[in-house]
Write a structure and sequence with these properties.
The complex is a heterodimer of chains A (318) and B (290). By secondary structure, chain A is mainly alpha-helical. Helices cover 77% and strands 0% of the residues of chain A. Chain A folds into 2 domains: 79 residues, no CATH class; 218 residues, MetI-like fold (Orthogonal Bundle). Chain A is elongated. Chain B has a single domain, classed as MetI-like fold. The N terminus of chain B is likely disordered. Classes of the chains: A mainly alpha (318), B mainly alpha (290).
């Protein structure tokens, strides 16, 4: 219990630090008034001064920075992410996020599912034939996939599967029915999943080989359990421990990767939103996305820890 | 450990004494890339920013004798752009991992050698950095500051401090209680001397393998930033060159613009990973972080 409280404390401290840093940097290094009004912000004409005063009042720009941070923070926690830095401030940032976030989440879910579905059979196959020719080919293959940067793989997949062979659709259309949209996300997800699957396979294969040398595997085999059953029922589960850790770590990495892959496949998710926002210097949007990604990252890491202690009682004891 | 694993390890010990042909191929490729990048202005490459328009034909031009990698939509020579892009990408990689080794290595050795209070503070800093999605920090810094080569390199450098530092700490801890350190101390060596003469050489070897892997990560990170519109603003970089050809229309009509630089980038990352992996196996570095 004490451990979890500590863990929670660190997570909250981290989020506070990140948000304060981001908020402070954006307001000190950028010029919020200029970002909202453009050139008008430096004008000294009386009618412009009124606009400036109105904007300052609307965005609380006259308050000292810590006060603005607290105001922004308390609103953020309740799900109100503020207004965009544009003349009319529409739509509110939270609406934009509500529209974009589900697509990124769906992309991540498809990618992780694919990675696991590829990695587990691949690892079982390779581990049961350890150090034979097939296994060596598979090791080289995984090494190659790990070295391909996700944007490079995305471009190549798009070229081969959508442009050349027209197997997968090129365009993500937000108006299409659910399963069509899932189908449209398969190729972007594959660009994310293949390198990650290779990482999973490498780790799982090593763990499986170690497990397969345990005495109880030999016992099971000599009792006449088939090779396939030994692999699936006896060897797989105990080999999954370190897999879970790396699953959590990679979810974080995938989050970053999805921002980039969305750009290439023009999926209007968080990635495209943050790029647009950076170009327009629309800092409330950048801030909101940074906070969402960081929060997700922290929460996933805590969840992995929790899952770990559920599966392996030894972790709970220590 | 069962007998079979022991046997496997013994086999590994026999083969690890050699770096293998693959290692030298990787080194050879890296040598070519680094040589071309370093001496690019003095080698007979075309001007990366010049438009080599042939009258009567619309660019992009496919690979040919005059343009071995072809040209982009503005008829700029892609071989030259790839080589000059390597200057930026490799500089980013070198500076990033250099900073990681210098600061991360220093902090890690201090934490691992002195332990106690030092260790707790430094480890906490490392944990904070590691539990933060790296790309987000990179986005933040590059979005707020001017996107110069210096900003990008330093940003990626800051991000490599924690991963390098953690391994430096773990390696230091595993050496700090060994007999040769005790012997040096009994002979009256001061802390500074022990760290520099006894620990540093031992920590540096695993770190050099890590440096190659880290460089690959930084080079890829630059590419990722380019796709978010956040890479170095002036001149070509690998990421930016790939980005020029990554749009659907360009990819359909002129696939070479994106795909040839992707292959160059891929081979470089592969060579860095492979060389790093071999060095690690050669010196039998354990990945386990304490």
């Amino acid at each position: 219990m004490r451990y979890w409280l500590q863990r929670l404390g660190v997570a909250v401290a981290l989020l506070l630090a990140v948000s304060a840093l981001t908020f402070g940097a954006m307001n000190l290094l950028g010029d919020p008034l200029f970002n909202i009004l453009g050139p008008t912000s430096a004008s000294t004409l009386p009618e412009d001064l009124e606009i400036i005063e109105a904007a300052k009042a609307e965005y609380n720009l006259d308050d000292p920075l810590p006060v603005r941070y607290v105001k922004w923070g308390s609103a953020f926690v309740t799900g109100d992410f503020g207004v965009q830095f544009s003349v009319d401030g529409q739509p509110p940032v939270s609406d934009l996020i509500k529209e974009r976030l589900p697509r990124t989440v769906m992309l991540l879910i498809i990618a992780q599912t694919m990675a696991v579905l590829i990695a587990i059979p691949w690892a079982l196959f390779a581990a049961s034939r350890a150090d034979k020719a097939v296994d060596k080919v598979s090791t080289v293959t995984s090494f190659l996939f790990i070295a391909i940067p996700n944007f490079g793989l995305a471009v190549i997949l798009k070229y081969l599967f959508s442009l050349k062979w027209s197997i997968f659709p090129l365009i993500f259309n937000a108006a299409d029915p659910f399963w069509t949209r899932v189908w449209q996300l398969v190729l972007p997800a594959m660009a994310l999943a293949l390198p990650v699957a290779s990482v999973y396979q490498r780790l799982l294969r090593t763990d499986l080989i170690t497990t397969l040398q345990e005495d109880y595997i030999l016992t099971a085999r000599s009792k006449g359990v088939s090779k396939r059953n030994v692999l699936f029922k006896h060897a797989l589960r105990p080999s999954l421990f370190s897999f879970i850790t790396i699953f959590g770590i990679n979810t974080g990495a995938l989050l970053g990767g999805s921002l980039i892959v969305e750009q290439i496949f023009i999926v209007p998710g968080l990635g495209t939103a943050i790029v647009e926002a950076i170009l327009r210097e629309d800092f409330p949007v950048v801030l909101a996305i940074v906070m969402i990604v960081t929060t997700a990252f922290v929460v996933i890491n805590v969840l992995v820890d929790l899952l770990y202690s559920l599966i392996d009682p030894r972790v709970r004891a220590s | 450990m069962s007998d079979a694993t022991a046997q496997a390890n013994a086999d590994g010990a026999a083969s690890k004494r050699r770096l293998g042909v693959g290692f030298w191929i990787a080194v050879f490729w890296l040598f070519i890339v680094f040589f071309a990048a370093t001496f690019a202005p003095w080698l007979p490459f075309k001007d990366p920013d010049n438009n080599y328009i042939v009258s009567g034909e619309r660019p992009p031009y496919a690979p040919s004798g005059t343009h071995p990698f072809g040209t982009d939509q503005d008829a700029r020579d892609l071989l030259a752009r790839t080589v000059f892009g390597a200057r930026v990408s490799l500089t980013v990689g070198l500076v990033a991992i250099g900073m990681g080794m210098l600061f991360g290595g220093f902090m890690g050795i201090m934490a691992g050698y002195f332990r106690g209070w030092w260790d707790r503070v430094i480890s906490f800093v490392f944990i904070i950095f590691l539990s933060f999605p790296a790309l987000v920090l990179a986005i933040l810094i590059t979005a707020l500051l001017e996107r110069s080569l210096r900003t990008i390199s330093i940003t990626l450098g800051i991000l490599s401090i924690a991963p390098v530092g953690r391994i430096a700490r773990a390696t230091t801890i595993s050496f700090a209680d060994r007999e040769f350190v005790l012997a040096a101390r009994t002979l009256g060596a001061k802390n500074g001397r022990i760290i520099i003469r006894e620990l540093l050489p031992n920590v540096l070897i695993p770190m050099s393998a890590l440096a190659l892997l880290g460089m690959a990560v930084a080079v890829v990170a630059e590419g990722g930033l380019a796709f978010l519109g956040l890479s170095v603003e002036k001149g070509p970089t690998w990421g930016k060159v790939i980005l020029t050809g990554a749009g659907s229309r360009d990819l359909q009509k002129a696939p070479w613009i994106a795909i040839i630089p992707i292959i160059v980038l891929f081979l470089t990352v592969l060579a860095l990973n492979f060389a790093g992996d071999r060095i690690r196996a050669y010196f039998d570095v354990r990945e386990t972080a304490l």
